[in-house]
Amino acid sequence: MSALLPSSTLFEQHQIRRLYDDATETWWFSVIDIIQVLIDQPDYQTARKYWNKLKGRLDKEGSQSVTNCHRLKLEAADGKKYLTDVATAETLLRLVQSVPSPKAEPIKLWLARVGFERIGNGRKHSARRNWHWNRPSEKWIRLRMCLIPPSAGMGQETCLRQAGAQTSLAAVGSLTDYWKDHDIKEGEEFAILTNIIHQEWSGVTVKDHKTIKGLKTQNLRDHNLSRLSGMTEAELIFTALAEMSTRQIAETEQAVGMPKNKVAARKGGGIAKKARLELEERTGKSVVTGSNFLPPSKKKIAPKKRAKKS
Fold first, then answer.
1. Domain boundaries, the chain
2. Mean predicted lDDT score pLDDT of the chain
3. DSSP per residue, 228-288
4. Would you list the DSSP string of 128-183?
5. Which fold would CATH assign to domain 4-114?
6. Burial (Cβ within 10 Å: 0-12, 13-18, ≥19) of residue 154
7. Which of 140, 147, 155 is nearest to 175 (CA)?
8. Which of 87, 78, 90 has its CA nearest to residue 21?
């Protein structure tokens, strides 16, 4: 991590400490601050003890969420900085499901919103006073949450329907979890399989899709309203269909290793491709689009000079 920028934000009346990793455009939130909200505990030490017990239980269960937590220095109430557990919004969305709380749903929506904000100005300017937050729409947030495995404690069909999407997608687990358990290495091999699925259903590679969107360093599933936009609701849903189909095919065929999982990826992406082509034929509109990308500004036409009278 580099250039960690301290900040804090509010959930209702609760202060949530966080750090922004400028290099990866990632927010890291204090886990204990989130726990305090969930268990409605104003005492920090009591919340810390609760988290330590929960962390121990999840660790014994082999939860990847605990592994994904890091320890970074955050400023405490006494003004000093101490190492404390932090996690990204995606990890916290999974952890929240382990804590029975009436605040679970509200804080998941809040995390999905603030956890994927991007800092606008500042990368090319030393002055940080003019930062602005680029907030995704409520509907997009709900769709984005459906694609964070597991999907917020509900079936993906239910999740997507509640987000306003008319779809018949079945419940789905995490495709990446399947890959991890079946001899697929994180990083390059994950990227290769993801690209196969994406190219199969959309007709373009991930890289080309980003070019269509005008994206450079951003993830296709991110959302930035100030200038660039990630995938549309339709693109998110077709991605979910392709990934769900791939997962179910891989399970049915007991795919292990890259060769067999490549086959499953092509088959899964092909299912979503057929659905995309049928939709495009019926609507006359392309699903893969860069329409959310702001068009280039029109060049000003210089006024014609009047001819001098002789």
1. 4-114, 138-283
2. 76
3. -----HHHHHHHHHHHHHHHHHHHHHT--HHHHHHHHHHHHHHHHHHHHHHHHHHH---SS
4. -TT--B-PPPHHHHHHHHHTSTTTTTS-HHHHHHHTT----PPP---HHHHHHHTT
5. Mlu1-box Binding Protein; DNA-binding Domain (3.10.260)
6. middle
7. 147
8. 87
Give CA–CA dist 290/296, Å, rounded: 13
Residue 46 identity (one-letter amino acid): T
Residues listed for the chain: 310
Q: Which two tokens stand for residue 264?
A: 């499953």
Residue appearing with tokens 């065929």: 253
Extract the tokens encoding 2: 């580099």
| DSSP class per residue in 66-131 | HHT-EEEEEE-TTS-EEEEEEE-HHHHHHHGGGS--TTHHHHHHHHHHHTT--B-TTSS-S--TT-
In 3D, which of 66, 84, 64, 65 has the Cα closest to residue 74? Answer: 84
Span 201-210, pLDDT tens digits? 999 998 898 8
Which ranges of the chain have pLDDT less than 50? 119-135, 149-154, 157-158, 161-162, 164-173, 223-229, 292-306, 309-310
- At residue 65's C-alpha, the angle toward residues 61 and 66, to 5°, is 70
Residue 52 contacts residue 62 (beta carbons within 8 Å): no
- Residue 112, phi then psi, degrees to nearest 5: -65, -30
Structure tokens belonging to residue 286:
């392309």
